[in-house]
Amino acid sequence: MALPPRNPVASLVERQNDNPDLVGVMDDLDIEMPGAVMGRADLADGIDIEEIEDGGVIVDFDPEMARMAGEEDHTANLADFMDDGELGMLASDLMAQYESARASRMDWEDEYNKGLVLLSRKYEESTQPFRGATGVTHPMLAEAATQFQAQAFNELLPPEGPVRTQIMGERTPEKEAQSGRVKEFINYYITNVMEEFTPEMDQMLFYLPLAGSTFKKTYFDAAMRRAVSKFVPAENLVVPYDAADLETSPFVAQVVRMPWNNMRKLQLEGFYRDVVVHPSQAPADDTMDTIDDIDGVKPSNIDYDVTLLEFHVDLELAGYEGG
Predict the structure, then answer these.
(1) What ranges make up the beta strands (E) of 121-247?
(2) How many CB atoms lie within 10 A of CB 263?
(3) Beta-strand (E) ranges in the chain?
(4) Would you state the torsion angle of the CA atoms of residues 310, 189, 155, 142, taken in this order, to the nearest 10 degrees?
(5) Cα(197)–Cα(224) distance, integer angstroms
(6) CA dist., res. 209 & res. 145, Å (int)
């Protein structure tokens, strides 16, 4: 026996339109906002109403609470929501780890500084073994570094661009066309938009055979509003003694020096906390002193900037566990 077809359930709007009495009731229905019920009608202005795809709405009667908890933006700076005392303890712990890691590589820094001295061709007068004697350093180290730099530069930055693409899976005309577009765009972006990429790479390849390790830091610069790629010398990157690589290292600390004006721009962009920072001369550093001595320059009394320690570390903060 066949069952009679079931009538589809009408929505509230359809039933309202089909029922004249219901239309009148809906028109007479008065809904009061919570602020009005509490005698605080001004609170209704602070309510967030968000429409969703199915036609409904999400009403948040206390949106400020979500903002204070940092739930509105997953990329929010947690330092803006943490207690100053807790931030101070965290900074002290990270600084202690940095100083310990820096002390564990002092022998490497001494050898690196000696290598920089041998690289230079600075003329120095000497009184030994007789007055007017001069020391001669063979330029073999400088020649080897320069040849490595030239050959590596041609391999990593050829005239057609450094980027190559590889099609994964089945090759189709559509994938090949997309691969060509991706290759052309990234090569254009690196060689034309990222103006610092080529000179920073050239400088990095010169220091690589001397230091043994150099690093490139690619990130989105909030002040320049684009991706940038900067050379990070080995002496400015500190990791723990037992770190096998940067991916598994307990922390990575970078010494960042910048003009105070640049740091202030980043503060206004929300990248750093908006706190008072006084510029000062860079702290004494043996490697920096060696490089300045080789170049024949030294900081003046008006050269003031900001020196920051940028830590990349996984932390489990109180109140943000599992976040």
Answers:
(1) 125-126, 133-134, 215-221, 226-232, 237-238
(2) 19
(3) 48-51, 57-60, 125-126, 133-134, 215-221, 226-232, 237-238, 251-258, 306-313
(4) -50
(5) 14
(6) 6
In one-letter notation, the amino acid at residue 128 is Q
Q: Helix %, strand %, coil % for the chain, to 5?
A: 45, 15, 40
Per-residue pLDDT of the chain (323 residues; tens, 9 = 90+): 444 444 444 444 444 455 545 445 445 444 444 444 443 344 445 577 777 777 777 776 665 555 554 444 667 778 888 888 888 999 999 999 999 999 998 998 888 888 777 776 665 666 666 676 666 666 777 888 889 999 999 999 998 889 999 999 899 999 999 999 999 999 999 989 999 999 999 999 988 988 888 899 999 988 888 999 999 998 899 999 888 888 889 999 999 988 888 888 888 888 888 888 888 766 667 677 777 666 666 766 666 788 889 999 988 887 776 65
Q: Cβ distance 98 to 253 under 8 Å?
A: yes
Q: 292: which 2 tokens?
A: 């300045």
Q: List the beta bridge partners of residue 63.
A: none
Q: From CA 282, how far away is CA 308, in angstroms rounded? A: 10
pTM > 0.70: no
136 to each of 33, 126, 271, 292, 323, how far by Cα in Å?
Answer: 87, 11, 50, 20, 60
Three-state DSSP state, 146? helix
Domain extent listing, the chain: 141-161+172-232, 235-316
